[in-house]
Each structure stands twice: as structure tokens, then as C-alpha cells.
Amino acid sequence: MKTLYKFKYIILGAALMFGATSCEEFLEEENLSSVSDQTYLVNEDAFEELVNGAYATLRSYSKSHDLDFYGVDIYSRKGKIEGDKPLNDYTNITSYLGASESNWKRSYTAISKCNTVITRAEEIGELSESTKNLRLAEVKVIRALNYFYLVQQFGGVPLQLEEVRGVVTDFTRNTEAEVYAQIIKDLDEAIPALPTSVSQYGRVSKGAAQHLLAKVYLTLGYTSSGTAADFTTAAQLAETVISSGEYNLLNSFAEVFDIDNQENDEIIWSAQFSTDNLFNGDGNDQYQLFKFSYESYPGMNRTSDYGRGNKPWQPTAFFFNLFVDGDSREAVTLDRTIYAVEDADGILTGDTVVHFPKVAWTQEQKDAVSYIVYNDDEYRVNTDFGSSQYPMFKKFADPLAPYGDNGGTRDANIFRLAETYLIAAEAQLQAGNSGAALAHVNTIRNRAADGVDLSLTSVTIDDILNERALELAGETSRWIDLKRTGTLSDRVLAHNPHVQLHHTSAIDAHYLLRPIPENEILLTNGTLEQNPGY
């Protein structure tokens, strides 16, 4: 049974906190109307609400797509190759970038909730030592997760490690090295206190913290303050998770995304959503990712199980071409054929409406069928039905999600074991152990193989990035992957058609950091310094 985040609103000082009462099976709502600041100083049950409020921030963490999907090799913006979108095209991004501000606020809101838990834990006399240590470990992992996101996107950011109970306007930026040191400190303190197996699905386990720490060390190894030893440490941590026995690759990629099998052995940590619309907030929006407006085609409608396609990203031709024959992940990830959901104009329910062949059809082949066929060079061509049409994602399919709003009910994977293998592969490669790296990549490829041998005989960083695309598309931040590995400029120039429209040489290096939100700088009277180039 799922862990569910069910919310109530609590005014705590100047902050709006989200909370939920904990029980053995659920994180459930209890509508208390008389909760005060003092409640959390003396009441262990109410303290648990603060912890659950920190967990609830994982929902918004799993939905921070703009900074993750724009301006990369495997996705671009929708539509024809024309016009200008600064965030995707690396053209005149300014300090007023809305995506920077929303993600900055999201991360610091989560950090604030974690800090409140950490501060209050020391003030509640009745809190047992074992409970305190466990909850502190959990929220330190959540805090580390958010600081890790911030430091990768913005560089050095202010480290706030205690609850703020008044107005503070003089924040200054810590160095990137200091932020990494704090992330590692939080995770090093958390890991010994965390259980290897959690009693309540959705809580942080030892393996989740080790997976995160492995990725932190992997990323640190590429930075100016990192060393070669960081790659070795990252590899050791990832190998520890792989060999722990707590998590296992499922037999097939399809099983991982079976909506009736969400709590499975491959998932290390996930953000919890609910089938109860009353408590699902605005839901998980992954089911909307990488879809076009198919409802304008004959035989289709807006209530279709294909899901709403209102998100602004479109996979590139490079992404579609990564799937080779015999890779079972293609059929799980993509819908290459769309079928009618209603009778209309000579079309019967179940008839083929649109088909996207993997190998281009000739005009003669197209003329021989009654449905519409688009080859890959036609995905961005204007038609009577819109300016974008392409094989849509189906791995996040959610039949229970409504068409009209986000409302998605399925959980969002934060970490799963397949990524751990790829972290281990990348770390081993950078540490000079190409054989170990190759073995990990081939483990993932062999799981995906359907009647063919997908094994590689050698491995490069590009192979690992390609494998991350095939295995983890839509689940992890592609922009961060490319930035980390120093491949962003080369790969977007090679594969992103809108970037190619505006650039013929390397992307300016200042775009490797996002602008500090201008409103944040104004609120601190300039003590918060802007990144270079903005």
C-alpha cells in the first residue's frame, strides 16, 4: 500500500508549512484548526507532521522540468526550427528568468522545512533519541538533495542550516566547495542512522542516501575543487548499493513502468502521489511529458487515455535514433502508432489514425494506407493538425489522470537501481576502471535486449550518456548530466535543432550556471551576488 502525502495548512511564524499526521500505513491528513508555534516545541505527534511536510516537497522536486529539459541533446522545444526561446536556445538568458526563480524558491522552501525539523528536534523534550536520530537523518537527506540541485544549477549558494524565525535580508553566497562540503556532511551524518529497509514505503533508506552521495562525489570529481579520489569514492558507494541486496533490477524494463507495480524492488526512492484527488494536490505531471496535441486528429478526443499533451518539450531526432532494433525500451517508452478512440468520418474506434515508422516509408507506401504516416523528417512540419507530431511517450501513462489538469496519480521515481548502475559505470570509467564501467553498462543493456545481443565491447562517456537517455528519459535532469560531464556544448550543437539555428560554435561558458533570480538579489539589497554574464 502506498505512502500518501495528505496535506493541511499550518501557519507557523511567518512561514506556510505543509504537514501530515503519520500512522503505520499512510501519511494522512488530520484537520487541526488550533495548531500553534508552541505545538511543535512540545508535541512529538505534531513534530511528525513537520517531517512529513518535508517529504511532501519531493512532489515539487520531481516536477522541476524547465531547467532539466530545455537546451539539451535529447529534447528541444516544440515546433518548427525558427524563432527564439532563450532558455532552450542559449540566447540572451537574463536574471529575470522565471525558471530560475521558481526552482530557487522551490529548493529553499524544502530546505526551510528541513531546517525547521532540525531545529525543533532539539527543543522537544518528549522526543525519543531513536526517533530524533532517524527523523534528523531523513530530513538531512532531503536537505542535501535540494542543496545538490541548487549547487549544480547556480554554483555557490547561501547555506542556511537553521530555522529562520524572523526576517533575514543579508544572505550571502557560500562557495561551491563549501556547499558540496555541507551536502557531504549531511549525508555522512545521515547514513549511519538510516535503516537498510524502511518500514513505510517512500521514506529515505540507507541505500537512497548512499545513491545520492555517490552522485554527489561523481559530480564533485569533475569540478575544480574535486580530485580523482572522488570518482573512486563515488564508485564504491554505488557498488555498495548495488551489492546490498535491498534492491534488484526487474526482469524487464516494462515491469518498472507497470502502473500496477509501482512499489517494486528497483525503486530506491520515489515521490508519492495518490489516486485520491482530494489529497493529490496538482498531481504528478509526467504523464503529459513529450506528447503533441493529438486530439485534433479525426477519431481522437481530449478524454483519451493517451493523456494531455500540453508540455513544451519535444524529443529530438537524435533521441529517437538511439533506439536500435531489439531494444525493448523503445516499445515501452514510445507510442509509434496512435489508434482512434471514437468513430469519426469513416474511422472506427481502434483504427490506426497516425503512424510513425522507425524506418522511413516511401510515398508509395504512404499512399497505400488510409491513415497518416509521418517520417522522422516530418515531425516538425506544419500540417492541418499542428506544427509538431512525433512518437509520444507512454512509459509514464496514467489512465486515472484527468485530461484537464495535471492530476497524475502515479509515483515519480527519484532514484532507481538502473541509475545506480550507470553512476557506478561513469565513476569507474573516470577512475580508470573501464572494464568495470563496461560491465555495468552491459548489465543495463542486456536487461533491455529482446532477442538480440546489445552488449558493447568498449565504453566511453558518450556511451554512458546515451544509455542514460535510453534508460532514464524524463526521469532525471538531462541538463545536469551534460553539464557534469563537460559535454553540453558539443552535444547540443550536434543534436538540438533550435540551438543549431542560433549557434555555430561553442555555447558561452557562462550559461553553465543559471542566473541568480533578480528578485532574490533585490530582497537582499545586493548582498546576494549575481553569476557572471547576467
Low-confidence stretches: 6-35
Number of helices: 20
Order of strands, widest sheet? 9-10-11
Mean pLDDT: 90
**How many individual β-strands?**
13
Radius of gyration: 24 Å
Please report which band the strand proportion falls in: under 5%, 5-15%, 15-25%, 25-35%, 35-45% or over 45%: 5-15%
Helicity level: 40-55%
Q: What structural class results from the helix and strand content?
A: mainly alpha
| Approximate shape | globular
- Measure the end-to-end span: 48 Å
**Mind describing the biggest β-sheet?**
3 strands, mixed
Your description of this structure?
With 534 residues, this protein is mostly helical. 41% of the residues lie in helices and 8% in strands. It is built from 20 helices and 13 strands. It has helices at 39-42, 44-61, 66-69, 86-89, 98-121, 129-154, 176-190, 206-222, 228-243, 253-256, 317-322, 329-333, 363-367, 417-430, 434-448, 461-472, 478-485, 488-495, 497-502, 518-523; strands spanning 8-12, 15-19, 21-22, 27-28, 75-77, 267-271, 313-315, 334-335, 337-339, 352-355, 372-373, 392-393, 412-416. It has a three-stranded mixed sheet with strand order 9-10-11, with no helix packed on it. Strand 3 and strand 4 (27-28) form a beta hairpin. It starts with 7 loop residues before the first strand and ends in an 11-residue tail after the last helix. Mean pLDDT is 90; it is low at 6-35.
